[in-house]
TrEMBL record:
Gene coding for it: dppC
Domain (ABC transmembrane type-1) ranges: 188-376
Location (main, coarse): membrane
Protein name: ABC transporter permease
Pfam families noted in UniProt: BPD_transp_1 (PF00528), OppC_N (PF12911)
InterPro entries per the UniProt record, alphabetical: BP-dependent_transpt_permease, MetI-like, MetI-like_sf, OppC_N
GO biological process, one term: transmembrane transport
Localisation per UniProt entry: Cell membrane
């Protein structure tokens, strides 16, 4: 059987949908002539800007950190530009889901990432940050017993000199008595923040630069691509080292440096795709109809390279998570911010006697990176209409 075609698609990518006249919700288009999603987006943007302004300029100590504000902005962007369109275009969403679920490993990975996202986003709101407790050091995970040379410090039960795990510390503790379960949850938040926020910055800048270079061409294309060449040769890692030396290391610095200097590859990828779309008839028709350059880029070029952008974004996230884990392992991040790399580093000297300290967060890091790769591969197959359809 031939490959499926996205219902209501307007281009080869199948990224946009066309509603029939009788399917249009004309009430939704009312109110200042703006669609409902645009109205809610404008209101949310105003509220967000006002809240950030109040927190930054009208409070002595910021109530919310800069990283958390960026994470909230990322969640808003995901709601309006990913979740909302998927909910509106039910037929197209169902079509892509049928293609995506063929990859069972990707479905399992997506469920795992959903759990990590929910726990990482909301878990730290309900559980306290892990605190130092030397009396609970080296406690084993649940259902595991280890020889205890100092049974009096064992939080669980002790039988014949063996310390048993306890529900108080279900995944055990570190050498300074911090619960690994809590550290894992807080590490989930750090990984999601680094991956999603940096991805949003990279994708936003790279898409704008790539589509602009492809559409305008000539001098604009030459200037933008030569700047990309220069930026990609710049050692971002050394800049991060210099900045952390001059200022206090923080997650915010890591995200902004890699976000604002890491979009070159995406810009090239988007430009390559947009150059093909630039010659399509619908672009010519829009130009002949008198549409502005900005309108054509926003309404035609960007939607029709969105499949490429979404796939690239999914595959970018694990690389940013690994960057953060690597820097945390090397001690180049804020020690007050729990992350998986930091916990792995703290347990590397105890692998023979307390293997769980480094192993458990390492397993979560490995599974998260692998899950994003599985999901990215499946999205590439699902969103590409040129891939093989149902047999």
């Amino acid at each position: 059987m031939a490959a499926d075609t996205p219902p209501g698609s307007t281009s080869a990518t199948g990224s946009a949908s066309t509603d029939r006249f009788e399917d249009v919700d004309w009430d939704e288009l009312g109110g200042l002539g703006l669609p409902r999603r645009t109205r809610y987006l404008v209101v949310s943007a105003l509220v967000y800007t006002a809240a950030v302004g109040y927190d930054v300029f009208l409070t002595e100590d910021a109530l919310i950190s800069g990283t958390n504000w960026l994470f909230l902005l990322t969640l808003l962007a995901g709601t309006f530009f990913v979740a909302w369109p998927l909910a509106e275009n039910k037929r197209l969403t169902a079509y892509y889901w049928r293609r995506f679920k063929k990859n069972r490993a990707a479905v399992v990975s997506a469920l795992y990432l959903l759990v990590v996202f929910v726990l990482g986003t909301f878990g730290p709101l309900f559980i306290a940050k892990p605190e130092l407790n030397v009396l609970a050091a080296y406690q084993p995970p649940m259902f595991l017993g280890v020889d205890s040379s100092v049974p009096s410090t064992c939080v669980g039960t002790v039988a014949d000199g063996v310390c048993q795990g306890t529900w108080k510390y279900p995944l055990g503790t570190t050498s300074d008595g911090k619960g690994i379960a809590r550290l894992v949850v807080f590490g989930m938040r750090v990984s999601m923040q680094v991956g999603l926020i940096t991805m949003l910055i990279v994708i936003s800048i790279g898409t704008v630069v790539g589509t602009s270079a492809a559409y305008f061409g000539d001098l604009v294309d030459e200037l933008l691509m030569r700047y990309v060449d220069i930026q990609q040769t710049f050692p971002t890692f050394f800049l991060f080292l210099i900045v952390t030396y001059l200022f206090k290391p923080s997650l915010f610095l890591l995200i902004t440096i890699f976000g604002f200097l890491g979009w070159g590859g995406i810009a090239r990828l988007v430009r390559s795709e947009a150059l093909q779309r630039r010659e399509e008839e619908y672009i010519r028709a829009a130009e002949n109809a008198g549409a502005s350059d900005g309108w054509i880029i926003r309404r035609h070029l960007m939607p029709n390279v969105s499949n490429t952008v979404i796939t690239a974004a999914t595959l970018l996230i694990p690389s940013f998570i690994l960057f953060e884990a690597t820097f945390a392992f090397l001690g180049l991040t804020d020690p007050a911010t729990p992350s998986w790399g930091q916990v792995i580093a703290s347990g590397r000297g105890d692998l023979d006697s307390a293997w769980w300290i480094a192993t458990i967060p390492g397993v979560f890091l490995f599974c998260t990176v692998l899950a994003f790769n599985f999901v990215g591969d499946a999205l590439r197959d699902a969103l590409d209409p040129r891939s093989e359809g149902d047999a």
